[in-house]
Amino acid sequence: MATSGGGSYRNGTHRSSLKVDRPLSMNSNPKTSVKSKPLSSSGPRRSSTGSIGAATGAAKDDAGVPGRVRVAVRLRPRNAEESVADADFADCVELQPELKRLKLRKNNWDSDTYEFDEVLTEFASQKRVYEVVAKPVVESVLDGYNGTIMAYGQTGTGKTYTLGRLGEEDTAARGIMVRAMEDILADVSLETDTVSVSYLQLYMETIQDLLDPANDNIPIVEDPKTGDVSLPGANLVEIRDQKSFVELLRLGEAHRFAANTKLNTESSRSHAILMVHVKRSVKGKHSALSSENGNNPHMKTLKPAIVRKGKLVVVDLAGSERIDKSGSEGHTLEEAKSINLSLSALGKCINALAENSVHVPVRDSKLTRLLRDSFGGTARTSLVITIGPSPRHRGETASTIMFGQRAMKVENMLKLKEEFDYKSLSRRLDIQLDKLIAEHERQQKAFENEIERITTEAQNRISEVERNYEDALESSKISAIEEVSELKKLLQKESLLRKAAEEEVNSLKSQLAQWKRSEASGNSEIIKLRKMLEDEARQKEKLEGEIAILHSQLLQISFEADETRRRLDRGGSGKVPGDLDSLFSQVKLQQQEPGNGEKASIAKLFEQVGLQKILSLLESEDADLRIHAVKVVANLAAEETNQEKIVEAGGLTSLLMLLRSSENETIHRVAAGAIANLAMNETNQELIMGQGGIGLLSITAANAEDPQTLRMVAGAIANLCGNDKLQMKLRGEGGIKALLGMVRCRHPDVLAQVARGIANFAKCESRASMQGTKTERSLLIEDGALPWIVQNANNEASPIRRHIELALCHLAQHEANAKDMISGGALWELVRISRDCSREDIRTLAHRTLTSSPAFQAEIRRL
Ligand code: ADP
Ligand code: MG
């Protein structure tokens, strides 16, 4: 079925990622990439053109450098509360940092995959986060561009942790703001350059100065010519060292806390905005402005001072969770709307930019006006979206991910901001001219004196040299002979040394050749693997194409069957009615669009053809038609909203019938998958059991060869195992035996489902024993599951191991199981889990269970 396998791409994410130009990667090594590389291969300096006038930033025709908004996703580790509350559940996301991919889980079988520019796991250090998210932006600010760094995500997922940590108690914890200022101060020269900072809060469409909280209604001013945004009303503090900057951040943070207490809100409702203005003077030859005049010798000697202005904006956005309850936190509905206005306006602008709309509603809120040159504007922008692992917040996490995906499609146009500083140039030239005149006068006088002195000295020298020459001629004859013999000895020694060196070089050469040979063989291996990967991708594409064609064939056949039936009903009288004909072509058209098209066409089929009709095709004479029909039903059953309708219309009964009557493996696999999806609901679980589902699933399990069929059957039984009321019946009808029988197939996906079923069953039993309704030993042990459990307790596949570890802990909680567990070797697995398990919650559970069982304690003491 279409939802199986978990690797489906949605929303065209992989298509958009293909556009990514790899050299633009955020991950490029900051040391080697120095400034130009993260931007583009041509670099900012060379690509800036234009005359002096055009490059002041005022000119509209200034050629910029395009750059996409870079988006990284960061996962917060489980916190203490989640470790306890979600102990039995997997995280709602799975990260594949090496593929830059994130999988968002839908259920036990299925997940959606998304690509980002960077995927930061819960172990990512603050230093790495700074280097991939912020460093390229900071470097381009130092080069004279505007740059923006934003954090977006639900409250509590780590926006402030990522951007605003001061890290005074632990330097490794320093956030992006502190590290950015360190890099800026290290790069500028405080004699010629200035760095100044404003720190603001935006709440309910009002901008407040965090450095002077009394100043709480600051207007935004836009230069109509350049489009530059500024806040002349805000305090601008010049920064000369790191310590005073940290002090300033701390002050702002304290004011933010006080202001929010006064406004009766939490800081998660407001946006915090740090603006850093860097103004540097650039030596003539480095500037993009002067390169135009590089051939003019006059301009060269003048070396005009050029001022480069870059602005870095760091935005800690308000929490992205919805607040729709009016009156919460003591606000009226109107206030609640205003609280969210800026954030929702930001979302709308990003949607418009991602879709290349003509109109981008930047004027709708203060935040979007402030950031108008950050998104789709003239700045380099990095966005980090923060998410938590808890499955309880899956909805918020999904919407954060979609926000990041849309932002990845936004293109920016970078502009260099530099201009000539004419005033200081003229001042400098005046001073220089005066100095030169004075110097010239001094040198002229000194020159004349010197000439006189040299003339007399030369005459004295000449007569002395004449005298000395005659004496020396005599003595030099003797010493020359001695010197020659000494030089000969030296020459001999040198030639010996040279020979030794040549041998050394030869041996190094042969080593080098050997090394090159081994490198070449490694390269060819890589090329081979790469080619295999490409072949796999092509194969996958082809299969997807075939699936689409098969679906359209199914539709066609179902309509043809319909038509035939109608014709027969009407006595074979005529043509296909017009409305059916047009519906068919409409659905077929949608089918050709990739991605959502398939789902939409199935939904349409569902709506217009009718569930009854689809279900009736399950009993069709035609085997192909039956396969198509069961696939359509399975697809529908994957959506929770359809499940009740399917069961009501008798779909569950039909699916179970198919297991019984069909011999076809594909039908078994797809039907079992559909039953597994339906079995996630408690009412359906009872229905499945009531209709002999366990017996049918057991027979299917016994006959199946295909691991995917076994995975679906095991998944269905595993779901049934989690129902407290059905334990006895499930076991009585051979459910546990069937589960254990499937381990003959060693496929890890099948084993993971078997392990999940066992863990679910053991959990229900341990609940029953705690409530006192169960006193005998576990039915799992009765049915002989223990040896397999012990064997696989340390399985290298983590989903299998995790479930078995939990199962062991649950079994151990019931004292009646202790004897079998000790004799079966399970005790030692528990001891190992309590020491080595990487999940702290499971480790603690195992340890607690061990210490509270008298039988285990006695055995441990005995040995
Ligand atoms: P937000 O600003 O998004 O509301 P915070 O930055 O205040 O979230 O983080 C919420 C809590 O989670 C804080 O206690 C913070 O220390 C912790 N936290 C967030 N991210 C991480 C991380 N990557 N590693 C460890 N703790 C984190
Ligand atoms: Mg915060």
From TrEMBL:
PROSITE patterns: ARM_REPEAT, KINESIN_MOTOR_1, KINESIN_MOTOR_2
Domain of life assignment: Eukaryota
Membrane-crossing segments per the record: none
Kinesin motor domain mapped to chain residues: 68-410
Entries under InterPro entries matching the protein: ARM-like (IPR011989), ARM-type_fold (IPR016024), Armadillo (IPR000225), KIF11-like (IPR047149), Kinesin_motor_CS (IPR019821), Kinesin_motor_dom (IPR001752), Kinesin_motor_dom_sf (IPR036961), P-loop_NTPase (IPR027417)
Positions annotated to bind ATP: G153, Q154, T155, G156, T157, G158, K159, T160
Coiled coil: 433-553
Compartmental location: Cytoplasm, Cytoskeleton
Any one Gene Ontology BP term: microtubule-based movement
Gene Ontology molecular-function annotations: ATP binding; microtubule binding; microtubule motor activity
Keyword set includes ATP-binding: yes
UniProt-listed PANTHER family: KINESIN-LIKE PROTEIN (PTHR47970:SF30), KINESIN-LIKE PROTEIN KIF11 (PTHR47970)
Family of the protein in this entry: Belongs to the TRAFAC class myosin-kinesin ATPase superfamily. Kinesin family. Ungrouped subfamily.
Protein name, UniProt field: Kinesin-like protein
Species of provenance: Juglans regia
Source taxonomy: Eukaryota, Viridiplantae, Streptophyta, Embryophyta, Tracheophyta
